[in-house]
Amino acid sequence: MLLFLNVIYVLIAASMIVLILMQRGSGAQAGAGFGGGASATVFGARGASSFLSKATKWLAISFFVIAMFMAWQATHLAVGPTTAGQGLGVMSQVPVDPASSAPAVPEAAPAQPTAPAVAPEVPAAPAAPEATDSAPSDPVKN
Q1: Is the pTM of this model over 0.85?
Q2: Which residue has the higher pLDDT, 120 or 64?
């Protein structure tokens, strides 16, 4: 059913594009006064605008109705039974292997945690030499 609606949806979209491009814009009225109204000879002066706008209106209505129905259908099909993985979206559909869900533990794990090694004491820095007041009394002259 959705495949059929998708095909109809694309055909309606393409025909809407064609009908919209065939319509005259509001600025085309001035050009029609100088002999540029080719569509007026086919559909009549008022019939072309009326037919194209009505066809576009109904195609747009059907386009939006089909879009709303397909969106409703997609959400209706997406809602399934409530499981423990609710809220995961697509990931809730992935099968869970119980063996792979547990974290890997090495086989030779130590039974008792070891205490952190104590860093050796750092030796103290040597003391700075003491300042003496033995400055030269007379400056040296050159």
Answers
A1: no
A2: 64
